[in-house]
Amino acid sequence: MDKAPAAPPHRLTGAEWLDRPETQAVFVALAARGHLGRAVGGAVRNALVDRPVTDVDIATDARPEEVLRAAEAAGLKAIPTGLAHGTVTVVAGARPYEITTLRRDVETHGRHATVAFTDDWAADAKRHDFTLNALYCGADGTLFDPLGGYPDLVARRVRFIGDARERIREDYLRILRFFRLTADFAVGPADAAGLAACVRERAGLAILSAERVRVELLRLLAAPRGAEVAKLMQDYGLLPAVLGAAPRPTLLARLAAIEAALRLAPDPVLRLAALAAEIPEDAERLRDRLRLSNEQAAKLARVAGRGAHSSTANLGPPGAEAHARAWLYRHGVAAYRERVLLDWTRSGAPPDSQAWRGRFRLPDRWQPPRFPLTGTDVLAQGVPAGRRVGEILRELETWWIARDFAANEAALRQKLAELAGRE
To answer: Where do the structural domains in the chain lie, given as residue ranges?
Structure first.
């Protein structure tokens, strides 16, 4: 006999974000003007499955202008961040809360919607993408589940609200959100109806902004089942549409396994490199296609590509560690470990490889020495001030590195005298 669907608990208890004075101050400010506020979405969802909560969004039956007046009357700062869409940011203490008026869609455009305000909580719930995101919570913790999202949350099932294709056509980013939340929350296969709808509507991905795609893609790659879901997207033809190239989900899965073996937190940019940046040109293409930040683009470029003539040549076994020490000296610990992880991934070696693990741990047992000479030492040899001083210093440092840092300061000074004597 089938079990009855899980009924939501009457009240959410023990949620720090709900009990904190700042959150309660927002609820009190709305109630003082005769309005109801309920936390909604990710904060409620995460609290129910004991996951961290960062942002707290609140839905209310108050119109935006009334939210502004309620905040002012309570001595809270209010910022009209999105009045046309019903959103006011209220700051209590130093914490921002997005307060959004209940809405219903009047017209949708695939990227955004024209909305009308309403007093109907169920109508507002139907605007959400997935049932597990349409959970509400009052100031006292009382839960409101108008669409049956709680059973889906308990079952770890990511299911579209109503007709999946209609929800996707309202905002095509929901395709990526379906896969991202599946990678983050779901247990077992992806919801069949949702998957089929995403495949049928995948052409809509082309109208999305690069910035929105980037945010969802990187969150997907960092999710617990990111590698598995990326493979699913590849199998159904969606991943090339996102990346504009033929991805390599097998390499992504290898990197994820290595990170897990080393107990490292997932690195989404490193995972993107494993998935789709085999050569430097790939990194440049992804930088432009996804509008990566300068920091993200620099990291991707740093770890993309390899080869004997590359500054990012393979740093792993076999062979001596001299090249690895040289690379660590020039680029630092963080960049070195990123490079090793990618080389390890591309080598095909298993996650429990002791040789690769030893190469990854090199910074734990060897600290790069400080190059002991400066431009002053070159000038002391009679070399005139100018560009040649820097050239000699770099040549001397290269000579020192090539000998695996074995030459001491006396040997370096002798070599400097030889170089200066050529002038």
So the answer is: 1-155, 306-365, 375-421
CA–CA separation, 344 and 329 (whole Å)? 20
Tokens of 183: 């990678």
The per-residue pLDDT for range 9-64, each reduced to its tens digit, is 678 988 999 999 999 999 999 999 999 999 999 999 999 999 999 999 999 999 99
Q: At the top level of CATH, which class does the domain 1-155 belong to?
A: alpha beta
Closest CA to 8 of 161, 137, 187, 191: 137
Distance CA 280, CA 287 (A): 11
d(CA 346, CA 246): 16
Cβ of 15: how many Cβ atoms within 10 Å? 20
Q: Which residue has the tokens 């077992």?
A: 188
pTM over 0.90: no
The widest CA-to-CA distance across the chain, in whole angstroms, is 94
Q: Residues 192-236: pLDDT tens digits?
A: 999 999 999 999 999 999 999 999 999 999 999 999 999 999 999
